[in-house]
Amino acid sequence: MTATESAVEFTTDPAAAARADLVVEAVPERLETKRRLLARAHADCPPETVFATTTTGLPVTEIAFGSGRTDRTVGLHLFPLGPDREDRAVEVVSTPLTGDAVLADVQELVRDLGRIPVPVADRPGFIGGALTMAYLNNAVAMYERRYASRDSIDTAMTLGCGLPMGPLAQLDAMGLDTARDSLEALYERTGDPRYAPAPTLAHMVTAGLVGVKAGRGFYEYEAGGAARGGEADGLGEPVPARAVRRIGVVGSGTMAVGIAEVCARSGYPTVLVARSELRAKEATAAVERSLERGVRRGKLAPGLLTESMDRLTAGRELQALGTCDLVVEAVAEDIDVKRAVFADLDRVCAPGAVLATSTSSLPVIECAMATRRPEDVIGMHFFNPAPVMRLVEVVHTVLTSKEALGTAHAVAAALGKRAVDCPDRAGFIVNALLFPYLNSAVAMVQEGWATAEHIDTVMAAGQGYPMGPLRLLDVIGLDVSLAIQRTLHGTFRDPALAPARHLERLVEAGHLGRKGGRGLHRHER
């Protein structure tokens, strides 16, 4: 028995709680169950004992009234699936009746335990639950509609966003019954359709497929909790691919430069075409600087730097792409600009060349229909920085041929990337799940739920995300984020996807995030 285990007393006698200074309930997410348990504890415990509820979706205020001691009941929203770090965040939830001294004592206890107390008001889902449960429910709906496979969804969110686990694996770890109950509680409180549990959740719970604890949920599990192998996140079956010996890249910005570097490093002769000779030279220099950094950090052999630069040529003439077997467009995220590029590529590229767009949210079919060969057009959404991020979303339209699809997957694998396959729909997988979550975080600031710092602390130090949502928006760029959010809203016509007014105001004011020194946070320049 460990020292921790020996310090814990296990009992079936509720009256034993009378000896505690703090009683924490962690029973299922049902209001009457929680109220009844704390009412019993109220009868057993002395008046000075403090009560805490671990609810995610229920109102702490109503639980406090049921407990019999409204001024001494708080919420403690823990994150059992959070990061493996000492300074994990805990949401400390107060009600209008919580005593100041009680709140201060509980926050001090959290600090003594090496955690970060984040004060939040008694609003539906607080910060962590409100943001996370909508995101998880959205992922289930995506899976339910067969837009993407289980593994594609989870792979996309772990590799594309750096999350500690994919949303469907997270639901399995949480327990699908627990997730459904939390969503039901949030929906009953808010009427917000984002919290209406996806029908698949109820179906699986009824069938007893509630996740890790049952041995099966979205995944199947061994006795020790390890997931068994299942579906693949790629194509799942052999698909013919065309030979690719030379790759072209159109553009000279950050993404184009990153893609060109990856291709040259991976052994492909690579042609980069920019708007001018000056931009072409700047792009070449940027690739060389990036490779030099890799050498200095010991991540790249010096010889590979020379070989990669020898494989890369750059200029302004589109005709140079005529010998390329795959061309990746990586120009500005403007559909008219992209359509013009694809019309030019259709003119200069050889028959059978696969033409790919790196768009993150625009319709691939629009690019395809600017050519006379829509069957050869596909989306290859690389993530920034392309030399580091391992994910590529391969996006097929209704006209994309199997050969073009197979070629994109084969090249992604040759570049050392994991490809996930999805149809041509706004946001694809990652942005369709990520940006509604980011937009909701901005709305929280707008509505005065919490400060930007508290929201980011909860999601990074609580949920274990690599970065809080508002800091991530600043890194992406608020103008870029607003454009993606408008695309999602315009495509799906869902009022919940309308860009937060606060986001629009910041962009109108020129506060674009880290690149401008100010966004949802201030940044040193």
UniProtKB/TrEMBL annotation:
Pathways involved: Lipid metabolism; butanoate metabolism
Domain 3-hydroxyacyl-CoA dehydrogenase C-terminal residues, every copy: 125-221, 427-520
InterPro entries xrefs: 3-OHacyl-CoA_DH_NAD-bd, 3HC_DH_C, 6-PGluconate_DH-like_C_sf, 6PGD_dom2, NAD(P)-bd_dom_sf
Superkingdom of the organism of origin: Bacteria
Keyword check for Transport: no
Transmembrane residue ranges: none
The entry's keywords: Oxidoreductase
Gene Ontology MF terms in the entry: 3-hydroxybutyryl-CoA dehydrogenase activity; NAD+ binding
Similarity remark: Belongs to the 3-hydroxyacyl-CoA dehydrogenase family.
Official protein name in the record: Oxidoreductase
Organism: Streptomyces antimycoticus
Origin organism lineage: Bacteria, Bacillati, Actinomycetota, Actinomycetes, Kitasatosporales
